[in-house]
């Protein structure tokens, strides 16, 4: 399945279809956390985090989790700056 990137970053971005939980989970994965680490940070179970990530991946029509993270960055849903870089 190929994602229609124009649809993903067009006038009606997928931002509105992603839940806050899905966005927070994608952000933590983008920062390098594993699902168990994200679960601890968000005070959720690992299964809840995994469900949110799978749901986000499906909503973004991504082929895998890293593709979902990349699309979320492209459409501006999650921040893609390196938190370890000096400002």
Automatic annotation (TrEMBL):
<protein>
    <submittedName>
        <fullName>Transcriptional regulator protein</fullName>
    </submittedName>
</protein>
<dbReference type="GO" id="GO:0006355">
    <property type="term" value="P:regulation of DNA-templated transcription"/>
</dbReference>
<dbReference type="GO" id="GO:0003677">
    <property type="term" value="F:DNA binding"/>
</dbReference>
<dbReference type="InterPro" id="IPR000792">
    <property type="entry name" value="Tscrpt_reg_LuxR_C"/>
</dbReference>
<dbReference type="InterPro" id="IPR036388">
    <property type="entry name" value="WH-like_DNA-bd_sf"/>
</dbReference>
<dbReference type="InterPro" id="IPR016032">
    <property type="entry name" value="Sig_transdc_resp-reg_C-effctor"/>
</dbReference>
<feature type="domain" description="HTH luxR-type">
    <location>
        <begin position="15"/>
        <end position="72"/>
    </location>
</feature>
<dbReference type="Pfam" id="PF00196">
    <property type="entry name" value="GerE"/>
</dbReference>
């Amino acid at each position: 399945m190929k994602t229609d990137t124009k649809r993903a970053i067009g006038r009606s971005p997928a931002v509105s279809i992603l839940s806050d939980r899905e966005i927070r989970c994608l952000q933590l994965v983008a920062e390098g956390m594993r699902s168990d680490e994200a679960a601890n940070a968000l005070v959720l179970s690992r299964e809840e985090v995994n469900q949110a990530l799978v749901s986000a991946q499906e909503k973004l029509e991504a082929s895998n989790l890293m593709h979902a993270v990349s699309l979320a960055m492209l459409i501006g849903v999650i921040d893609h700056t390196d938190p370890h870089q000096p400002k």
